Amino acid sequence: MLRLRMMRAPQKYVQGKDSLLQFYEEMKELGKKWLFICSNSGFKACHDKLEKSFEGKEDERQYEIFGGVSSIGEIERMRKLVRDNSIEVVVGVGGGSAIDTAKATAYYEGLPVVIIPTVVATDAPCTGLSVIYNDDKTFNSYLFYPKNPEAVIVDSDVIAHAPVSFLVSGMGDALGTFFEARACERTDAPSLENGGITKSAMALCRLCYDTLREYGAAAKKACELNVVTPALEAVIEANVYLSGVGADNGGLAVAHSFYNGITALGGHSAPHGDCVALGTLVQLVLERAPKKEFREVQDFCMEVGLPITLSQIGITTDEQIRVIAEHACAEGESIHNMVSDVTPDQLYAAILACDALGKERLEEKA
Q1: What is the rounded CA–CA span in Å between residue 213 and residue 221?
Q2: Cα distance between residue 214 and residue 339, in whole Å
Q3: CA distance 160 to 156
Q4: What angle do CA 255, 134, 250 make, to 5 degrees?
Q5: pLDDT digits over 350-365, tens only?
């Protein structure tokens, strides 16, 4: 089958210290009546700057604290607010769930959506999909959109004052971007946009990895000090734009299937990005990556505080590993984008090998 190569991305990406003070100037063409769907922390971090950007303007703004989960009922509640108030633009302010709720609301109501991430723990802001939950907070579905958000605006000062753990986890999520896309390119597997992978996409994915390695540790230090530096700016861009657009147009492989396998354990609390980082190392074992490359990724993880062993993400029993391997290889999982299809037994062996190599590395550094 002929697979057309394609690229998708947000129409506009804005990033910088106090960029929210320029929100109106950057977004004014989109409409005059705004609904800001905010997490609690997102409202506190962004409200004053947003209001300052609208000073002297006649635009109508409505701020709504959402219920905490991008559930069917919560999306319906926001859609009613849109209709009742003749809203023209939807804005998501906060973490992944606030963003997913805003995307879904805008999509169903046929409106433009702007994303304001207040943490950079995942690459969700730039992507053209949402994770939707039932009202009892159980998983419902992935909702894929025909386009990416109209705009994403990241205030680097807001990110600098968010917990450092979110920045680190975002680096873990971004770490898998290049290696998963490389695996998909080898097999001509589809991207998340169900298209062929362009050279432009691969260049963004490679730049994402190079940026993390070059600036990751310095960015973490800046965030610990609550200051915005060029290194922090670079890693914010890697976590949000390079990883988001890269994953959308490059595809997924073992690293994200490994995370999905972990979710099958139920009640597991390790951050998404931490699991993806370890899953990236597992993928390199399966690919028989050169020792130099494997060590390079291990060293990066250790430098910024990402896991290289199972115990670091709370996996301690053989039974847990078996469950992860079985569910990560389920039909439809992205692990099947690898050159040679991966069985649960093969993945189980790779996980054990990766963990053993990680333990050895920690002992060397001790």
Answers
A1: 14
A2: 29
A3: 6
A4: 25
A5: 999 999 999 999 999 8
At residue 35, what is the residue type?
L
Give me 74's structure tokens.
Answer: 């919560």
pLDDT tens digits, one per residue of 83-126: 999 999 999 999 989 999 999 999 999 999 999 999 999 888 99
Residue 144 three-state SS = strand
pLDDT at 207 over 80: yes
Instruction: Enumerate residues 6+ apart whose C-beta is below 8 A from 105.
Output: 35, 37, 75, 78, 79, 82, 90, 111, 113
Tokens for 49, please give them. 């700057």
Residue 64 pairs with which residues in a beta bridge? 37
The C-alpha atoms of residue 70 and residue 73 are separated, in whole angstroms, by 8
User: How are beta strands 113-117 and 89-94 bridged, if at all?
Assistant: parallel
Q: Tokens for 39?
A: 């997490």
Model confidence over 53-90: pLDDT tens digits?
999 999 999 999 999 999 999 999 999 999 999 999 99
What b-and-e string marks burial along 251-273, b requiring 16 or more CB atoms within 10 Å of the CB?
bbbbbbbbbbbbbebeeeebbbb
- Phi, psi of 182, deg, nearest 5: -60, -40
Per DSSP, the residues of 42-95 read: HHHHHHHHHHHHTTT---EEEEEE--SS-BHHHHHHHHHHHHHTT--EEEEEES
Q: What is the pTM of this model?
A: 0.94
Question: Could you report how far apart the first and last alpha carbons of the chain are, in Å?
Answer: 52
DSSP state of 19: G
**What residue has token string 């299937």?**
257
Residues 108/55, Cβ–Cβ less than 8 Å: no
